Each structure stands twice: as structure tokens, then as C-alpha cells.
Amino acid sequence: MKHVYRTVAGLAIALLCVPAPGRAQARPEAPKEAPKEVTKRVNINSADSSQLSMLPRVGPSVADRIVDFRKDNGPFKKPEDLMLVQGIGEKTFQLIKPYVATSGDTTLKEKVSSSRSGKGKGKGGKAGKAKKGADSSSAGDGR
Predict the structure, then answer these.
(1) In a domain, 113, yes or no
(2) Are 86 and 66 a contacting pair, CB within 8 Å?
(3) pTM for this predicted structure
(4) What are the beta bridge partners of residue 42?
């Protein structure tokens, strides 16, 4: 009798693993929506300060520095040249890279949120460690 139950259970699991025909056709439609986000771009060679500040982790002061850098050094040849601007390092560049272009129109119309994973945890963890260090040093001073 156990053998029958195992066989039925095995068949049920196998049927659940096989995709339904309607679902297999629905999957290709989902990736078509994702490129729309990527096509929202800021042309770093023609954008003004307010358009540049729509990029994630770029505020008004960094946007002004980008405009000043462009005025002093000419147009950016490649997006990576943004890292020559003070305030844009490797991490910030990786966040804004999908939204940056050196030619074409600026199509980004609203601020992109910067969702850096672990941002809150990093600050809280450091504060906690500093607190522990202060507590242990004061405990060690009671000679």
C-alpha cells in the first residue's frame, strides 16, 4: 500500500513541475517591460544641473560639479569619465551607469531613487561597534 502512495505522490510532484502552456507564453512579455526603465537616460554632455540631479546619489552640488567639469574640460567622451568629477566614485558610478548617455536626448523626467542594499545596516553596525568599543575601554580603565 505504501508503494501506491509513493507512486501517486511522485506523479503529483512531477505534474506540478511541468509548466502550464499558458504560463510558458506569458514569460517572454515580462522582460519587454524592463528595458523601458533602462531607456530613461540623462545626456551628461547636454543636461543642465537640475536634469543631472535626477540621477541616483547625485544632488545639486554634485550636479553643479559635473556642469563645471564639462565647461572646463569639454564634453565627456565616455560615461566612465564622470568618475573624474569630485564626488563620483566607483560605487556611485555603478548606480548611475544605466541612466547615463553621452549622446542623444535626456529622457529621464523624475528622480531615480538610490536603493543601495545594506545602507542602513552599515551605519547601524558601525555605531554599534563604536558603542561597544567605548564601553569596553571604560570597563578596562577601572584598574
Answers:
(1) no
(2) no
(3) 0.56
(4) 100
CB burial of residue 49 (10 Å; 0-12, 13-18, 19+): middle
Within a domain: residue 104?
A: yes
Contacts of the segment 78-87: beta carbons below 8 A, 24+ positions apart: 78/102, 79/44, 82/44, 87/61, 87/62
Q: For 67-123, how does the pLDDT look when each residue is reduced to its tens digit (9 = 90+)?
A: 999 999 999 999 999 999 999 999 999 999 999 999 999 999 999 987 655 444 444
Residue linked to cell 552640488: 61
Decide if 59 contacts 67 (C-beta within 8 A): no
Alpha helices in 82-118 (DSSP H): 90-96
- The residue-averaged pLDDT of 49-62 equals 95
- Domain CATH number, residue 96: 1.10.150.280
Share of the chain above pLDDT 90, in %: 50
Mean pLDDT (whole number) for 54-64: 95
Which residues are within 8 A (CB) of 50 and not within 5 positions of it... i.e. 6 or more apart?
Answer: 63
- The grid coordinates of residue 8 equal 501517486
- Find out whether 101 and 44 touch, Cβ atoms under 8 Å: yes
Range of the domain at 48: 34-108
